[in-house]
Amino acid sequence: MTTHTEHEHAHGLQFVGLDIPSKADLQNCIHCGFCLPACPTYIATGQELESPRGRLHLISSVLDGRIDATDRVLGHLDLCLQCRACETACPSSVPYGRIMEDARAAILANAPAAQPRGWRTRALLLREVLARPSRLRVALALGRLYTRSGAQALVRGPLGASLRGMLPPALARLESSAPVLDRAPFRTTGVLARPTSGSGTRVALLLGCVQGEIYPQVHEATVRVLQHAGCEVVAPEGQGCCGALHSHAGDAETARALARRNIAAFERAGVEAVIVNAAGCGAAMKEYGRLLRHDTRWAERAERFSVGVRDVLEFVAERDFANGLGRVERTVTLQDACHLAHAQRIREAPRAILRAIPGLQLVEMRTPDRCCGSAGLYSAVQPEMSATILDAKMADIASTGAATVCTSNPGCTMQIEAGVRRTGLDAEVCHVIEILDEAIRAGR
């Protein structure tokens, strides 16, 4: 006997809940096709339903009741990277990012038994691990043990080929993407730095969930650069994960809970700006107002908070950062993080910083703002498409001849590091702020 929930799953779902995609947003699309050559999945497949225009058509059809959200329909939505390159290309300003987030949230708002199993599992992983610092730290502690034991170097070394061949394909992919965790994490709260002279601008640093654990050197460099730029830097207690990946995965309720916690923590800090060195986090926090638009108690607070959120490169580029910089003899290429270039529309700031550094040569890629295939958990849940997109990115990087690849997001850093290992490219991957910090220290 078929139950009601089994019948729903067999025939597909509809959009329900608070976050149903807006018809007004969807009607902005004029079907011009400008988004097609900007979309990495359309470039890879040539399929209309793997383009923004095609996915908007599917979402509109589900919203109008013309089709159900079957597994096949949801598969097209799930292959989207949410890189938002289509927003940059779109002449009609279609807010594709929020449409896709709303669509995913409106599917996960269905009864748990009816939700797509993969989507439900992903949301549960993000909710129960990434949003819970103690659990995330346990998971990463195992990664540190793997690195520090020498096992990681052995598996990835010349003698590790046979060991890699013994691993199941999924585990081999996971191992090749795992970062090298050989540094102590950055978890310091309170006052991190005071300006070298005068009272300075008081700013707060988002510690987040991943950046300080996997790339603590980025937080360290950020603090030194902000101090050089005349800031007092604090990291308030009570802050945590920004909720970006939860929003992307459709778990809007967890994202809202994390947003409320961060707003309250940073309000208590009494700062002039909230500084973020992870592009995806900054984009999400600048959109807290929309995320909490249905919450009468928090909507105005969220809007006020979002106005004060600044990406570290955006913030530093507007200050007197170039004073006293020393030479950095590097040839660098810049990977525009999707959520910096497309979501926050910040492109010139990282370039202005790099060009101001004596001795540094910036060599641009052909498509520096095309996604690298990281996209949060995308490389784990869509490994084949992620690898295809990464291969194109690595070829673009290699064509520059640069020995350093600069990014502004930890997901990009991790993905391109994996690409460097996979291709054998002789290149270092780091955040733009690390290069500026190197120049500041070279000038002392």
Structure overview:
By secondary structure, the chain is of the alpha/beta class. It folds into 4 domains: 16-111, Alpha-helical ferredoxin (Fumarate Reductase Iron-sulfur Protein, Chain B, domain 2, Orthogonal Bundle); 123-177, no CATH class; 190-317, Rossmann fold; 331-442, Rossmann fold, CATH 3.40.50. The protein is 53% helix and 8% strand. Strands 1-3-2-4-5 form a 5-stranded mixed β-sheet. It has a 4-stranded parallel β-sheet with strand order 7-6-8-9, with helices on both faces. The longest helix is centred in the middle third of the chain and has 18 residues, at 252-269.
Q: In the residues, how many domains can be counted?
A: 4
The structure class reads alpha/beta
Largest sheet: 5 strands, mixed
**Total beta strands:** 9
User: How does CATH name the architecture of the largest domain?
Assistant: 3-Layer(aba) Sandwich
Strand order of the largest sheet: 1-3-2-4-5
Strand content range: 5-15%
